[in-house]
Amino acid sequence: MLQIFNNHINKYKQTLISINKQSKILQKYSDKKLKEQTQILKIKLENNNLNTNTILIDAFAVIKEAIFRALNLTLFDVQLLGGIILNNNSIAEMKTGEGKTLVALLPAYLNALTGQGVQIITVNDYLATRDANIANKVFSYLNIKIGLITQQTNFHDRQKQYTQNITYITNSELGFDYLKDNMAIHKNNIIQRNFHYAIIDEVDSILIDEARTPLIISGIGDTNDKPYIQAQNISKVLINKIDYKVEEKSKNIILTEKGISKCERILRIKNLYDAKSRWIKYILNAIKAKELFLRNRDYIIQNNQIIIVDEFTGRIMEGRRWSDGIHQSIEAKENIKIEAENKTLASITYQNLFLLYNKLAGMTGTAKTEENEFLNIYKMNVITIPTNKKCIRKDLSDLVYKDEYNKWQSVANECLDMYKIGRPTLIGTTSIQKSELLSEMLKKMKVPHNLLNARPENVLKEAQTILQAGQKGAITISTNMAGRGTDIILGGNAEKTTELIIEKYKSQQQNQCIMNNEIKELLTTSEIKFLQSTNITKERMHDKDCIENYNKLTTIYFKVLNKYKKIFEQKKKEILDLGGLYVIGTERHESRRIDNQLRGRAGRQGDRGTSRFFLSLQDNLFRVFGGSKIENLINSLNIDDTTPIESILLTRSLNSAQKKVEAYFYDIRKQLYEYDEVIHNQRKAIYNERKKVLNSTFTRDCILEYAEYTIEEMLTIYITKNQDKNTLVSLIKLLNIKDNIEKLSTMNLYEIQHYLNEQLRISYDLKEIYLEQLRPGLIRQLEKYYLLQQIDQAWQEHIDKMNLLKEYIGWRSYGQQDPLIEYKNEAFHLFINMIIYIRQTVIYLIMRSRLIIDI
Ligand code: ADP
């Protein structure tokens, strides 16, 4: 197998040989001795300055053996190689079905030996739970503790899970915990530990697809639904192309002169763009809601709420809301209760969140097309790992139709043909609406099929649908949901089917379901009895008192598994004779990467398979980005509407249009990243200051430091304003020191500063003594309270200002200056002002705290 490795990878050949040699030696070890290796390796690592490369071979060999003992699977060389790449801060591109879940265990173990936590990031709770269960089995052989955090994990448990050696968690839980930690009022409420090493599964989905929407924690703001409703009514009378233009590419609306005066007339205002009224924003949002946000494509309505459908995964995003008033405008459009506009309390983009880690790695089936982005922004290389068995999938050339109608007709006909011959077919669609359109067509043609999209009733059947998708004659229509994390196995999935059967017959007294004859014949009478009476759960399988039962259950499991393996193997052969899984794409996506994901469903682990895209010139991507070139080309070909075009020239044009889209969105993400980097550096500074306060047991120093800075800053103003007495008056007032201004103004700058610092300390000592008498320890609590309260409040206001600034710079950027530089400059001033403001208000409040106590 080694000869298939390309040059880049050849350099690890020797390492792989050594790992395999070492793991052979370990095969002879008892379980106890294998477990002891963890401690031995920890010591070895410590003696080598925690350089993980020095024990990589030993650690990987240990894991390989543990995986074998726990799961009865022998890691392939390509998996070991993936592990090495992940330990090198890189992205391992490995196709679906190549066993990435196990690959992650290699570097996770190695890095966990340093004593610092390792986090494995997945895209959803289901995958986190599934992978943590597998890891638990393996690591029970190695004395390594596995943590798991999902939406359901409560606060206290969360804290504990983070301290385990390796923790499985989704990207959004990790991000929200980070933001919440930085809003904590007490240090016991902090739950995360250092950001040491993270392995991101489906790394392109998290760092690229999700990079455009920041994570936001928001508080309730003001509600005033009237302007939304009024703007919505106005948008109904405005006419596209006359009153406004829609720029689909940038998702923007531009009002024409006609449109502007129409709005002004209806609203009876003189200037729609008057900065004081926010009408322009309401109107533009209402038109956006009308033209750009479509029901059943961008969102669905569930329980009288607008629920966003993720454009990349096709899944619903429960609880997420579009910002800047868009969500409210859509609520107005759909005549649903308008929720209050939210105020951002804290936010971060995934880009900057993951850059907090000392060491970052990722794995996915599709990353190579975005390798520049990974390198530029995250400093991660993308290394393609060869598949264990050669991929023999046939990617047929695109069929392009003039219009959508004919495209869908051909797709439906193709499904009918495949159904007739029994070849399993997966059809990828880009929206719920389109998936349902095809489903209707197939119903009329009497082609049985399954539908997988974000509608709750279909989501419930997701596992079942995917389980069946590889079976003979299965026609499965899906949105991008089927693109990831799911493995379509030809013939059927023996493991899953076995698990389902065992679960079904366990504790049968309660279920009273009749056992299938095939299973009855397979098992002995005592096995049937045992199965029907046991209620041992997965979680308890490793408990001591359950071991005996566990062993019995395992024997049954393997009996059933082997039976289904045989049945499914036979079915798989039949399907392979038909050509394997057939994947049909119905529209090119925003990037080749997403198309490749869909294609990658077919041809897993060396199976036969085929993929083909059916396109039309009316498809969104080509309409918006194709330009006139493609249309001219088609017209010059002069063919009828029902004949597809398979021309190299056309495919090339389509590819270049798609590359244009990729570049366009990359620019948007890069811009977002560059802008966010500015606020990110400020956020780091503020969060650090906050942490300092939170962890401090003696905040007095912090208060005095703030006061001294304040004195220095105000005295600088005093000097620049030609020793303006008013500044001194304000300063004295702020510090709450009763003093004689005349006396002060006779001193030189140094003397004033020295004098005020001294007075401040005296007055603060007095205050402290007074408060200590009232209630010991109160002053420290007050200090902390004021410090945190003011930092948080000022930071939230600062975020608002920064958002406004960005919007404002956007308007202005038609001029010559580079908007980013302008943004950076102004952001810097805003930040400095905020810091000064925080210090001053803290001092002001603390120096008057006595009044509050007296009340
Ligand atoms: P990926 O995430 O790369 O799509 P998974 O981790 O979901 O792949 O694994 C796909 C399937 O391959 C699983 O059923 C897993 O048990 C199996 N598998 C993984 N590694 C091996 C191996 N070395 N030998 C045999 N089967 C394996």
Can you put this structure into words, describing what you see?
The chain has four domains: 7-215, P-loop containing nucleotide triphosphate hydrolases (Rossmann fold); 223-339, SecA, preprotein cross-linking domain (Pre-protein croslinking domain of SecA); 394-652, 3-Layer(aba) Sandwich (Rossmann fold); 673-848, Helical scaffold and wing domains of SecA (Orthogonal Bundle). The termini are far apart. It is an alpha/beta fold. 57% of the residues lie in helices and 11% in strands. Helix 3 (31-47) runs antiparallel to helix 4 (56-71), helix 30 (700-720) runs antiparallel to helix 33 (749-774) and helix 34 (778-812) runs antiparallel to helix 35 (819-847). The protein contains 36 helices and 21 strands. The relative contact order is 0.07. The site of adenosine-5'-diphosphate (ADP) has 14 residues, from helix 6. Adenosine-5'-diphosphate binds next to helix 6. This is Protein translocase subunit SecA. Residues 81-239 form the Helicase ATP-binding domain. Its main location: membrane. Belongs to the SecA family.
State the main characteristics:
alpha/beta, 855 residues, globular, ATP binding, 4 domains, 36 helices, Rossmann fold, binds adenosine-5'-diphosphate, 57% helix, Pre-protein croslinking domain of SecA, disordered C terminus, SecA_Wing/Scaffold, single chain, 11% strand
What's the shape? globular
Which sheet architecture does the biggest sheet show?
7 strands, parallel
Number of strands: 21
First and last CA, distance? 81 Å
Q: Which molecules are bound in this entry?
A: adenosine-5'-diphosphate
Question: Structural class per helix/strand content?
Answer: alpha/beta
What number is the mean pLDDT?
A: 87
Strand order across the largest sheet: 3-4-2-5-13-1-14
**β-sheet strand percentage:** 5-15%
Task: Supply the CATH architecture of the largest domain.
Answer: 3-Layer(aba) Sandwich
The number of domains: 4
Percent helix, as a range, is 55-70%
CATH topology of the largest domain: Rossmann fold
Helices, by number, come to 36
- CATH homologous superfamily of the largest domain? P-loop containing nucleotide triphosphate hydrolases
Radius of gyration: 32 Å
CATH class value of the largest domain: Alpha Beta
Q: Residue ranges: pLDDT <50 for 5 or more in a row?
A: 851-855
Enzyme class: translocase
Domain Helicase ATP-binding: 81-239
EC number: 7.4.2.8
Binding site for ATP: 79, 97-101, 487
